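REQUEST ID: PR-0412
SUBMITTED BY: lab tech R.K.
PRIORITY: routine
TASK: structure prediction, single protein chain
INPUT:
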Amino acid sequence: MVRAVFFDFDNTLFSHRTLSIPQSARDAIRILQSKGIKCVLATGRHMLELEHFPEVFTLNLDGYVTIDGQLCLDGERNIICSNEIKGVALENLVSLFNRKETPTILVEVDRMYSNIHAQRDVEGLSYATTVDHPLGEYSGKPIYLGIAYITPEQEPWLHSILPNCNFLRWSSAGVDIVPAGRDKVAGIEGYLEHFGIPLNDYMVFGDGDNDVGMVKAAPIGVVLGNGRESAKSVADFVTSDIDDNGVWNALVHYGLI
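STATUS: complete
OUTPUT:
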């Protein structure tokens, strides 16, 4: 029995071709919620970034698993679980940030700041350019996520200097950096625990490399037809393209709408 559905944002719920949420996806969420099924965002983005997409808040979602599961909020945006980067992993990340050789962003609970103007200095960015993060210095406050603008070819070097971290690539332009063993799954499980939903009573929708963990872990993992092969390879079901009613068609396939 599905009691909660988690949706990635970029290219799963929000189309960057039409710059909108497909009407069929909006209708599907409304029907699910009318049946008492919680609909939750599960994204690598921070709430500060989501505010640049006001359409998402018109969905009246039941929660937000943000920054790759590091910060989880309920429908009223109250924090219900969190996981900061600590110890050696934090020391190494701050060292990378302070060297100012690699465009890097540090993410706090209510602030994001860059060591250099990453969006201007890195080519190949697409939807990542939606927020121009201000320059800043490490404040000493808890850090929940790092973002490094680095190519796939450069990534092994990043692994070597940040051995206590997990890397979640969101495009060819960059990766999210979280503590080892953490990804969206941790935030999803924290949300489920908070609301007393069993771990076998949910499904997820995703499309990207950073969705692989949650798609693989979910009782039902759905990947959009426009998704990455890495995600499709672990999916229980590959639906149609986001702009071809992908969310709606998958929910019909599983008899939820």
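NOTES: Residues 120-131 have pLDDT under 50 and may be disordered.
REVIEWED BY: pending
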